[in-house]
Structure formats: C-alpha cells, structure tokens
Amino acid sequence: MSTSSRSLSVSLFSELLVVDQLARASIARVLPKGMELSHFSVLNHLAHSGGERSPAQLAKTFHLTRGAMTNTLHKLEWAGWVHVRPDWDDARRKMVSISPSGQSARDAAIAAIAPVISDVVDTIGEDRVRMVLPVLREMRAKLRDRLD
C-alpha cells in the first residue's frame, strides 16, 4: 500500500468515525424520552424484519455479545416495547418480537429523527447523497465480510 493510499484510507475512516459520532449524538438528542439509540436500533430492526428473532441472532446482527443484547432486550421488555417468549421448539432459547407499543415508540422515534436527517440531506443535496450511498454500502459489505 502506497503512502498516498494509506493516507487516503486514514482520512476516509477518520471522517466516517466522526460522522458516526455526530450522527449518533444528533439522533440520541431527539429520541423519545427513555429511548436509547441501542433501543431504537433493535426496534427498527425488528420492525423491518417483520418477524421474531432470537437474542443470539440479534447479537450477531448488531455485532454485540449475547450479554449486551440480553441487557438491551431486558430494558426493551421492561418498557413494553418487545415481547420475549420461549422458543416452542427449544425451551432453552427465547424469541423476541416487537410489540404494538414498541412499533409506536419506533414510529415516534422515526418522526423525531426524520427532520434531523432530512436537514443534513437537504443541505448536502439529494444527488450527492445518492452518489455516495453505493460506495458506503459496498464498504459496509466489505467490513461485514471481514467480521463474519
């Protein structure tokens, strides 16, 4: 790897890390009271997946330990935002689904987040955002492959 290529790589990942930090802080600031970014992420995933997931599947999806995911799921269950039930085929496992109040909480979070994200997209320009999305998706896939 040339010095120029290494410098480009470092600059790219530095920018990505700062954007990630700022995006998380901006989103966390507008989430509904009591909701953390990790809660929103799980609720949003369950809403999109349209079915049940095991805690182990969720931990793998989010690249977390099972313990960290279990902690998040306990908080979500306590809030009434997810249902956790035994797996009928294997009683040692559990299955998680989003509850109606979880769907409502997720929808409220989306409504709160949308203006923040829309403002950024409007400022940068939709065409420029559309141009960068394929590159970001390719980078995500490459990084995911390295972890799996």
Give structural notes.
By secondary structure, the chain is mostly helical. The chain has a single domain, classed as Winged helix-like DNA-binding domain superfamily/Winged helix DNA-binding domain (Arc Repressor Mutant, subunit A). Helix content is 74%, strand content 7%. The protein is built from 6 helices and 2 strands. It has a two-stranded antiparallel ribbon. α2 (37-49) crosses α5 (100-124) and α3 packs across α4. It is globular, with a radius of gyration of 18 Å. The two termini are 24 Å apart. The mean pLDDT is 94.
Short summary of the structure?
The protein is mostly helical and 148 residues long. The protein is built from 6 helices and 2 strands. It has one domain (31-147): Arc Repressor Mutant, subunit A (Orthogonal Bundle), CATH 1.10.10.
